[in-house]
Amino acid sequence: MAEREQRRKPSPNRSDEVADGTPATAKQGEKLKADLDDLLDEIDEVLEENAEDFVKSYIQKGGQ
Amino acid sequence: MAIPKVCGIETEYGIILRGGDSNPVTASSLLINAYVAHASRQRVAWDFEDESPERDARGPARDGSLAPEIETHLVNAVLTNGARYYVDHAHPEYSTPECADARALVRYDKAGEVILARSIEAASELLPDGQSIGVYKNNSDGKGNSYGCHENYLLDRSLPFARIVKHVLPHFVTRQLYTGSGKVGSEAPGVGIDRVPFQLSQRADFFEEEVGLETTLKRPLVNTRDEPHSDAARYRRLHVICGDANLAEVATYLKVGVTAIVLAMIEDDELAGVDLALASPVLAHRMVSYDLSLTRPLTMADGGTMTALEIQWEHLDRARKYAATRGLAAVGEEVGADVLHRWEAVLTALEVDPPSLSSQLDWVAKHRMIAGYRDRHGLAWNDPKLAALDLQYSDVRPARSLAAKVGLERLTDDAEVAEAVEEPPRDTRAYFRGRCLQRWASSIAAANWDSLVFDLGVDPLRRVPMMEPLRGTAEHVDSLLERCETPGQLVAALGSAPS
């Protein structure tokens, strides 16, 4: 199993690249949350009105 | 050397008629007829002579395999972009033209969405007041009924089928990490929403076998349909039925691009020393789909364990070596290099920060939207509103589509997709099919993937065989087509045999 255990380890440079690429600052987090809020506002405007009927009536014949 | 990985995607769309008696076959026929009439193109009948979906790659017909379902009475059109648009199993289905690489296939797959959206508009003019047709690019109705999005790849006939199965299974099981379109809940018997509130894949619930011929029952991860639609002595067409229909262009690009590279490696026997056999691929397939942590170990055939990501990393490492030593000509050098780059970036992000992929992968985008909505409104996972969001994500009408709102990255632009609705790819035989349909539709009696049949007004019909997927390109036939003013001249120049 030695070979497999070695395989499992991501290569060191891969981890380094990752560490540099993700400074999860508070500012970024706020931006992401604001984007999501905007998206959810937009969705409220276009979402099918009666969700229950919309979902219930969507019945398909099985295909391939 | 691996042969060029000519590829295509067939998508069965979900369809519903609202405000009336919803017969899906009637609705699908109306949809397609309305589009064809609207596009002012003469519909060309599909020729079933060379179709043999019952042929099995493993050998002669096996007991218990399904009879072919050929529905010749149903609507069946060939479009000027070389695609086929038809009714199959009570769904409208769009098959892209043959494409030379993953980048082109993304364009023609998107063109399909535009064609379906235009079809809805065209059909709405024919429907009584109060009725409307909805079309969804997904793979399940949330009630246990599934319909497919199938990929096709050209393979060398001499490649042993057992070798394909061995090496492609671990890939199919683990590629869901980026090919999944996401789904609220599970439709597998006995799996409640408390256990699986959300999963990576639309389709994983519906696969029960490792290998087999069926596509509608006991679906197998590796489908053995042996219907090459080309020279059967030289080619095989691998029919892949376990994928999801994607809205995210990056997801389609990776689904096709990575799979084409893996298949090229298998063809060149580049995975000979690699043993990634899973103890139970069918079980692992569902486990991967159900595991949003992406860390669950899968039991390997040799008793060890690996995660889905580790299996993907192993394939990527092999692919990098393959690219360095053998090149990626089989998938297109430029596209292949770009696919490798994106594949690595996506695996890296899946490892450290999956939510960062919300502009690239469908399941991540959908999960972010639905989980966010759930949090905002304090809903339970079984609230119908969340299932409605899931369904509406795949609505093909741009104004209603939630996928169009979540900020997905584009690899194409609207102009090139609009062009792909009308124009065939220039670098496969689809070019010849599409150009002939543009110019001489009224003289084409029938079309198939591997032939065109001309009706020149005098007996007999003339069949032009197209057995080579990479012949009939712009390079091959443009000057010939320019020289010919009539289909009769073309047929004479090609010296085609009576049909």
Protein architecture, described:
- The complex is a heterodimer of chains A (64) and B (499).
- Chain A has 64 residues and is mostly helical.
- Chain A is 69% helix and 0% strand.
- Chain A is built from four helices and no strands.
- Chain A is elongated.
- The two termini of chain A are 40 Å apart.
- Residues 1-21 of chain A have low confidence and may be disordered.
- With 499 residues, chain B is of the alpha+beta class.
- Chain B has two domains: 8-137 and 413-499, no CATH class; 141-393, no CATH class.
- Chain B contains 14 helices and 17 strands.
- In chain B, the strands form six sheets. A six-stranded antiparallel beta sheet of chain B has the order 3-4-5-1-7-12.
- In chain B, a hairpin with a 2-residue loop joins strand 15 (444-448) and strand 16 (451-454).
- In chain B, helix 3 runs parallel beside helix 6, helix 3 (161-174) crosses helix 7 (308-326) and helix 5 packs across helix 8.
- The radius of gyration of chain B is 22 Å and the shape is globular.
- Residues 61-73 of chain B have low confidence and may be disordered.
- Classes of the chains: A mainly alpha (64), B alpha+beta (499).
- At the A-B interface, helix 1, helix 2, helix 3 and helix 4 of A face strand 2, helix 7, helix 8, helix 9 and helix 10 of B.
